[in-house]
Amino acid sequence: MFNSSAQLQSGYIGSEKQPLLVIDKVFAEPDVFVREAAGATFSAPAGSAYPGLNATLPNGLGVALAEALRPLLGQGFGMDVTGALTITGFLALATTPAEDLTALQRIPHFDSADPQRVAIVLYLCQAGFGGTAFFRHRATGFETIDKGRVKTFAAHAKYEVENVPAAYTDAMTPYYEQTAQVNADYNRLVAYRNNIFHAAVLGQGQLSPDPRTGRLTANLFIEARKAR
């Protein structure tokens, strides 16, 4: 399932030196997942700000990735990986036109304030669909959000979120400074703490609802349960 010649890069981004993991050529046969996605039922997600459509992950993909990444999650992110790993996720297709984005969809975001929860994006689309970018909030200097920072950030964000133009996030988005970007590429994986400010950047790719031609990704979250 996994490619024995996968190429691993790791490093740190921003002034907060947050860990970032990038793996190219992750799977030996990634086309299998694209074919499964082509037969999946995509729909607008309830209770999510994702700008497009979601579907169920291919069977076994989440568990396989979590187990393969287990050593890297411990070494790179300081997670306690001696116990069970909890995996949630979905297939995603960006389809919402820029002019239809909600205010929250136009700015960088964090998924939760838990620094022990790692987010993973597996690109199942070709290069040209932008990628994933990371940001610093200018007013506070925050690059990540934890429970102690939520109130301070929210005091600024309440005003800022209503004064951002109708466009996907990029290096010119007001109130934020881009600190790094990982470009999309077929069969590339990027992993980062889910409490870092980040956003999908779309590049020049077409917003298509077809998994075979659109911006198809597998989005996952991994949490560690402490061993007893």
Description:
This protein is of the alpha+beta class and 228 residues long. It has a single domain (7-224), classed as Jelly Rolls, CATH 2.60.120. Helices cover 16% and strands 30% of the residues. The strands form two sheets. The protein has a seven-stranded antiparallel beta sheet with strand order 1-2-8-5-10-4-3, with helices on one face. Strands 7-6-9 form a three-stranded antiparallel beta sheet, with no helix packed on it. Strand 1 (7-13) and strand 2 form a beta hairpin. The two termini are 31 Å apart. The mean pLDDT is 92.
Spell out the key features of this protein.
3 helices, Jelly Rolls, alpha+beta
Secondary-structure map:
Blueprint: E1 7-13, E2 18-24, H1 31-38, E3 52-55, H2 61-77, E4 85-94, E5 117-123, E6 131-137, H3 150-160, E7 176-183, E8 188-193, E9 198-201, E10 216-224
Antiparallel strand pairs: 1-2, 2-8, 3-4, 4-10, 5-8, 5-10, 6-7, 6-9
Summing up helix and strand content along with how strands pair, one would put the structural category as: alpha+beta
Got a strand count? Answer: 10
CATH architecture type: Sandwich
Helix content: 10-25%
* CATH topology (fold) name: Jelly Rolls
Order of strands in the sheet with the most strands?
A: 1-2-8-5-10-4-3
The main pleated sheet reads as: 7 strands, antiparallel
Topology as H/E string? EEHEHEEEHEEEE
Q: What is the gyration radius calculated from CA atoms?
A: 17 Å
Average predicted confidence as pLDDT = 92
